[in-house]
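== Sequence entry ==
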Amino acid sequence: MNKLINGQKFMRIIQALRPWLTAFALVLILRYTGMLSGISSVAGNALMLTGAMDYSPSEATKKNDFDYNFILQDLNGNKIDFNQYKGKVVFINLWATWCGPCRMEMPSIQNLYNSIGENEKIAFVMLALDQPGTQEKIGKFVKEKEYNFPIFTPAGNLPKQLQVSTIPTTLVIGPDGKIASQKVGAANYDTEKFRSFLKDLASK
């Protein structure tokens, strides 16, 4: 009799938990098939259109000196000494192909890049933090999305300022070598205010 009662209790618990177990399993499937980031990206894009995620450069951090002493590589494996960016305004975005919020903000960064164009005073560094050896995967993602901003991966250790715990993280380095702005989390950078911010920095 006790076994029957215990069995009925167990079944009631399983039935009560079934919706939660189903939802958890669905999230796991979406996460490991890469579909979860796509869904979050679509929802985020809708939010972007409201203007609620427009980034305000007034959110700047303390103007600490930036450490330029590290090496990057492009998707063809060419090494780039970051010191070559000294004296320029540098827009650095830390991202990964599996990161939904990163995907969400990328169209705004592409539009920003398109509006500024090739500029001797302003440089874009889209720094992918995918696992080492995934250049082909990154390249495929960029090609599918038709992004043409400069993509790099680390070619060694990054300075502490770029060893972030959350992506996307975006920094703007001024021509004076100081961090002029830092934003953690997704944002819309395709605004006149942010373009003016970059151009004003470049004119100093």
About this structure: The chain is about 40% helix and 20% strand. Residues 123 and 203 are 14 Å apart (CA to CA).
